[in-house]
Amino acid sequence: MTIRTGPVVVPAAVIKRLPMYYRYLQVLVEEGLERVSSRELSQLMGITSSQLRQDLSYFGEFGQQGYGYKVSELYQAICEILGIEKQYKTVLVGAGNLGRALINYQGFSRRGLNLKGIFDNNPSVIGENINGLTVCNVEGLKDYLLKEGIQIGVITTPASAAQSIADILIAGGVAGIWNFAPQHINAPENIIVENTHIGDGLLSLFFKMKHQERL
Amino acid sequence: MTIRTGPVVVPAAVIKRLPMYYRYLQVLVEEGLERVSSRELSQLMGITSSQLRQDLSYFGEFGQQGYGYKVSELYQAICEILGIEKQYKTVLVGAGNLGRALINYQGFSRRGLNLKGIFDNNPSVIGENINGLTVCNVEGLKDYLLKEGIQIGVITTPASAAQSIADILIAGGVAGIWNFAPQHINAPENIIVENTHIGDGLLSLFFKMKHQERL
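Structure tokens for the assembled complex are given below, as produced in the milestone run.
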């Protein structure tokens, strides 16, 4: 097994499937499975085995003809490809329901996210303890970012506050922003902005319900 | 402009982009824009204009050479294609943080989701009023589904409860399940299950931060 390190352009559709690979392999690791064929793995995930092999080929050489993949090795490789081993220092801004749901989400720390601080502007929330962290006043956000060397900012504020929070995160030196607010974030090119549109799944569901016969 | 009604198999990647079309067009409608060229629209969305035209071609004939698209017409067409006009009767099961975040999500009703009931098994939550609806005991879920003719069930329970809730939803006659629990749902083929993996965006962010030079 060799992970490619050179510069290869990876199609966006392949990148989008990596989290799925991670999730399925994690389950197989937990189930104690030692090896899996590309046919079994691809069936599990609802893609073709040639798709699976092609996707993985962007990142190196995995598996062996006739043997398949060592589950734990492939899982480790996917983790490394995704950058999960990094333990990024992170803050979350906006301790409403969605923010709390994320803070309590068990996959968070497991996926290499090291949540260091929670910020809000609501006086009735500031000072509250959520999952072992005290909610801080957003007024202190920039100083905190610079002092702690925070790398990722998660935005779970209302749409109206999202850009101003993003501006503070960027001024505070983060490299990545995970945005849940339904608001486009303007950021310099060197800042990675990942938008999660929580309502998109509903639209896919509607579509599939309406066009069931066409899928 | 003609919306195709016949049986055409639409690739999964195209279906995945429809919610993005919906979101961007909604903004343009709100901004009062009358028409948009395929080049402008595709640039806004970060895809090529040939991709845009090809995607839309699965659903009919839209736009005019040299004129582009009438924004409001294309928006209406996308709404119709997605099935947004339908006002599906819906219940949500699991009134924790994520459930509350969804209930308070403004796009919910706007997107044609008619939330009729909220269910939980926690005695300290049952009876609580959230956004005008009283949280009901999950023990009454099946009877309620059958009586009200509920079409969609949203699962925001812990993973351990997701399958048993799905079984009740299916027995109660829903046609679609929107699952947020990190748990695979087994369902008959005629039931549409849409899984939203809220943590996937984090993995994409990690990947892009690690491989910035390769994107």
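Chain A has nine helices and eleven strands. Residues 11 and 18 of chain A are 11 Å apart (CA to CA). Further analysis is deferred to the final report.
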